[in-house]
Amino acid sequence: MSLRLGFGGKGVGGVNVDDLWGTAASGDWRPSSAPRSDWPPPPLEGNGYLRVRCNGGLNQQRSAICNAVLAARIMNATLVLPELDANAFWHDHSGFEGIYDVEHFIKSLRYDVRIVEKLPEITKNGKTKKIKGYQLRPPRDAPISWYLTEALEKMKEHGAIYLTPFSHRLEEEIDNPEYQRLRCRVNYHALRFKPHIMKLSNSVVSKLRAQGHFLAIHLRFELDMLAFAGCYNIFTPEEQGILKKYREENFKDKPLDYEQIRANGKCPLTPEEVGLIFRAMGFDNSTRIYLAAGKIFGGERYMKPFRALFPQLENHNTVAGTEEIAENTLLGSAVDYMVCLLSDIFMPTYDGPSNFANNLMGHRLYYGFRTTITPDRKALAPIFIAQENGRTSGFEAAVRRVMFNSKLGGPHKRVHPESFYTNSWPECFCQTSPKNRGHKCPLENVMEILNSRMQSDETDTAESEVTSNFTSSIS
Length: 475
Description:
One of its GO terms (cellular component) is cytoplasm. It holds the Pfam family O-FucT. There is one protein chain. This protein is of the alpha/beta class. It has helices at 58-75, 95-99, 102-108, 144-158, 177-190, 195-209, 223-229, 237-250, 258-263, 271-281, 300-309, 316-320, 323-327, 329-342, 355-366, 377-388, 395-403, 446-474, and strands at residues 29-31, 49-54, 78-80, 83-84, 114-116, 121-124, 127-130, 134-136, 160-163, 215-218, 289-292, 313-314, 345-348, 371-372, 429-431. Strands 2, 3, 4, 5, 8 and 9 form a six-stranded parallel β-sheet that branches. It is globular, with a radius of gyration of 25 Å.
């Protein structure tokens, strides 16, 4: 959707804000992650078993699961259901089975990899024991060659390998469209939250939609992100002490220049800045906003100016009102994810190392080019700094120029450092009438063809085994 052309109507500065509630122009592109070239089903006999431990939060784990499936395919391995890390920060032990629909996950990927829920047991000398995976620490963004050499060698030697940790352990930019499409099949089709999470999420969305359109914000104004960014100066001495202590304990220590960090747009937007951006874009105080956020650092002191601009603020606790969410960190994150995915408009306030926002932007692109507003913090920084110093003339016009010069959810080329999980175009999209034959949509019945081929291969294997056994018995 391009908003630089100008629209008539009740908008601000020639832009009709109502147009933002629709989806972006698709350019005849539609999502498609089905294979478009020869894609044989996984053989009955593989090279061994792959176990992984996915560390980080829910959405960092999500991309790790996609990488695990691809790694299993690359190594011709059977994937053991990925383990989700339970650490001191997240205080959650839900595991894969507590968040995702396991049966759907395994069934959806049956043409791609073999998946088991746990490592099998083996019987040797009358004793039964579990296979133990050889533990390896993959390099960050490891190339495919690492999996085909070092990892595969250990798998063949030990029967199973255990890769830990497994966050960002497979390179993103791979010159193989079919491998990238497999990632999309995992991310956008196989990974489905459990039915009760989907039901709860749909209930929240229905309640929000009952009063019309709503937009969702991922507000990263939390202790960990502020400490990581090194943005201290707006806080009290006591709060600065908390941030510095957290940074020393969790991140690499390096000299910080707050003024330079702020001027470069490296600080997360404050709640008030988010409110001022929306006002400048033409949203009024009747706009319904869903807030996906953890505990806001500084509390109500920082939320009050935002609430004054947009009083209709909601979150999963105010809409759902269930104790289950309060007691389950990953459940709350899963509900936030689904509500943000289904919202009319989504805006991340910090698109640095925030897997929640990155995955969501990619998911919204895949499901219909839904409007996503991505603030250019570097371009906005001097505007806000000038306003703080009393130079308020032309403030809203300057904000509008920045915001309406941004990509808002339509198809666009992926440029480093943009992640594949943020933008899977063009690999996971196709056109019905393309200029490039490589972008042509595959046959509608491609999955039926794969299913038929898989059944045929299994039948041939079974017949081969019967013939082999018969031959052995008469020889």
